[in-house]
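Ticket #4471: complex job returned nothing on first submit. Input attached below:
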Amino acid sequence: MAKRIEVSDLNVYYGAFQAVEGVTLTVEPRSITAFIGPSGCGKSTVLRTLNRMHEVIPGARVEGKVLLDGEDIYGSDIDPVNVRRTIGMVFQKPNPFPTMSIYENVVAGLKLQRKYKRPELDIVVEKSLRGANLWEEVKDRLDRPGAGLSGGQQQRLCIARAISVEPQVLLMDEPCSALDPISTLAIEDLMQELKERYTIVIVTHNMQQAARVSDKTAFFNLAATGKPGKLVEVGNTTMIFNNPTQRATEDYISGRFG
Amino acid sequence: MTLTALDPDPLHLASKGRLPRWASPAIALACAVLLLLVFAITPADGRADYLVTLAVVFLVVQFAISYAVEGGRKARDRLAAAAAVTGLFLALLPLVAILGFTIVKGMKRFDVTFLTHSMRNVADSDPGGGAYHAIIGTLEQVGIASLFSVPLGLLVSIYLVEYGGGRRFARLVSTFVDVMTGLPSIIAGLFVLSFWGLVLHQGFSGFAGSLALTVIMLPVVVRTTEEMLRLVPPALREAAFALGVRKWRTVLSVVLPTALAGITTGVMLAVARVVGETAPVLLTVFGTSSINTNPFSGPQESLPLFVFSEAGLPNNTAVDRAWSGALTLIILVLLLTTAARLLTRRSAPRGR
Amino acid sequence: MQPGAISGSKDANKGRWLDVGFRRLSVGSAVLVLIILVAIALFLLQQALPAIHKDTANFLTEQQWRPDDTPAVFGIAALLYGTLVTAFLAMLMALPVAVGVALWLTQYGPRALARPLGYVVDLLAAVPSVVFGLWGLIYLVPKMIPLSAWLSTYFGWIPIFKSDAIFGKSIFTASVVLAIMVLPVIAAVTREVFLQVPRENQEAALALGSTRWEMIRLAVLPYGRSGLISAAVLGFGRALGETIAVALVLSANYTVSAHLLTPGGNTIAANIANTFGEAGSLGRGALIASGLVLFVITLAVNFGARAIVARRREFTAAT
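Support reply: We reran it on our side without changes. The output follows.
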């Protein structure tokens, strides 16, 4: 199921402003890769270019290559809609569809593909909610509004919604930054289970979180405000946190700036 | 445990087919040329007919091609996008035509005589005459209506925002304001006619018109100013309260000044809304061809009423005057809306 | 601390009175709003009832409008029919187009173009109805003649398009003018509503692999639904109550006819504007009675829409 992502020499621009410069890295399948770095270093921007979500922002454009198991997602015959179906995303703020029930939220993506029969959908809903460790908490109120859940539950509902279409990769953009510690722990546990089946990339501000959950860590930094963000180094998480090769990484990890 | 229900080949990013970027304009061009031929050899005729037919044909052809090449989802996506553009054109064409038509036709008599003379002793078929009396009437009627509805509306919105606080009575008032917003303007005219004319036995006058316009303007002022007052950060009020400032002073010297730009905008939009109201004025002011500067006695004229009565006459001279009256109205509305817009933009950082 | 600092000196008490006074003033203004609306209903009723009493025909089913004859014969049937049909047809034409415009302005159009066009729409929503009426009378009515003839020739077998060779100032023309008039009103409100749709929901829909249209159906339309209903009601209310534009483009008569292209028909508001000048005292009472009917319809539409919106909100707000 899971796929490898290879990013080579990626530049991202917002209009005339270059936000990210020369990023090259590989994301291994069935692993968790964390993007860390100070605010504005372009880590979220890079994450969004992995499923072409940056195209939602007017004026944003990309140079370079992003290969998904060897296939360039920026190829001329590639439809961004298919890219996003294959590479799912979970956002910073839990964003269930406010007018939909829990059930409808989970199957929202699936219903786009083709017509499904109710029993088929039932199976997917249970499977996805179990996959997101939410089933036991909501199985008796699937017809209630998704917006009525707690913040942590909403975020797990969003994860269920994202995995219901069986993506190859799951991108998570600071998924815990709006949550309390207990909900954060629940999501972190969930990520460990999800990595059995998916390639996961997570952007986080929380270095302990990166150290706890990720297999590999990529550190982004920017020379000064107004300059583009760069990938400083990427490696096994234990290596990045214990003996980084770059001075900037060490400074950031040890809390000397950022 | 894989779900076989998904795409037959989910491992490929490329869709089964994809139309190139130039496909949509190319299809549009082809349809336009083909239709031109059809229009040339058949009795079909007319620019408007051509454009409407073209829009329909383009929507259908593009949908069909896209469906065949890219499948149903893409085809529906293209259809929706094209339909939105078509809707835009369909809407803007007549509307811009109305504006353009009014400007072109209105310029013909939009001169000094028009702005400085009344219709007294001017026959329908005479080329002269003007809307001076109507402009005077409109300014007085709208002015008096604003004098009533602005303070009153402001007080109501102050109640809703500062005192109401989700109380049942506040919700009731809010509902009533909504209902009043949706009230047909002629009802306001009928109300003043019954109450002022038939029960209190007062005659037609500019003042009666102002009363009717007040009924229309009041809910608009309440809604817009309410919105602006709600934008004032609660922290400002709390800061004033913490200094021991009384509520009425807080409202008058902290809340209102902060929201002033927004309130002015709202009032301007409300004025723009009533300046062109014809129906209520027709029933209360009645209309006249002479100058009557006293809004408290005798029928007055008003601009929309002037346009209405001149438009109904069979002479071209009268219709020309109607167009110039319409142009005057549009200029008034344009000035008010644009000023309101500029004001909002300048005060935006404070508002939001 | 001095004794009496909290219990208040003379000056402090004066301030308190002002506080109470200001509060009463604002509450009083709010009460006045209620009084005005209730007064509208009462005064209309007070003037309408005697007139209806003197009516020798059935006010609800009679089509003719001759209140100043002896005996007085008048009824609301033809007017009510014309009012509802024109407003309904106008909404049928305007609503889909207005939603298309709002969608383009918020979802499809490039910002540099969508912004000024949004302003144009706002401006058009403020154009006085008498201007639409004038344009309809001078420009549109002659243009409608060939279109109506064409519809009648090819679709005459459908009763509503059947007509006897004379066209122009018909119910259909009035509906078109109304549609053009309410379109920018609905579009302006709908645009505001669509601008409020949270960006996060739109992104969530796109990240699930939806096309732009599917994103609109998943995130934009459901969220904007209650606002859309309000906009439609606002437009419908305008169309129902529009007086001058209709009065200018209809050649009035008092019959209920399914042939929408044939000249004739009338609406409550247009009838008031057209006949008010010559109406006698019973005639005015009768016109006020017809206005009362219009008032009741607008109230019904308003509260009907509120009920729908409230039911939707209940679901969204529930926990």
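The domain at 132-347 of chain B is CATH 1.10.3720.10 (MetI-like fold). Closing as resolved unless it happens again.
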